Amino acid sequence: MSYTLVALLGVAGSVVLDVAVLRTRVLARRAFWVGYAIVVVFQLVTNGVLTGRGVVLYDPHAITGLRIVYAPVEDLFFGFALVVQTLAWWVFWGRRLTH
Fold first, then answer.
1. Which of 15, 54, 66, 85 has its CA 20 to 30 A from that of 30?
2. pTM, whole model, 2 decimals?
3. Rounded CA gap, 64 and 73, in Å?
4. Residue 83 CB neighbours (<10 A)
């Protein structure tokens, strides 16, 4: 299974988790998108440093080859999934613990 496919499955799974399973609707909130814009800037800086200096290498056959600031776009997909899941679980457990 390629890095690209795993990254896309991560995004799809996170969206389904937010919208249909946990029903937190994190993705429907303006605050999420504002916060995510801040996170993605720092993710690009960090990925740019790590991949630009050769600290992290990728098999060219496992990725699409599209890069942003040296990092493969798949890293952005994983980062998005990580942020969505973290916030969705946070909201879900916050609701359960306060009720």
1. 66
2. 0.89
3. 8
4. 18
> Helices 73-98 & 30-52, crossing angle to 10 degrees?
140
Which DSSP helix (H) or strand (E) runs through 76? Answer: helix 73-98
Residue range of the domain that includes 50: 3-98
User: Each residue of 18-70: pLDDT tens digit?
Assistant: 999 999 999 999 999 999 999 999 999 999 999 999 999 999 998 999 999 88
Give yes or no for a contact between 80 and 8, defined as CB atoms under 8 angstroms apart. no
Please state the domain count of the chain. 1
Tell me the C-alpha distance between 43 and 41, whole Å: 5
* Tokens, residue 50: 């790590």
> Quick check: helix, strand or coil at residue 60?
coil
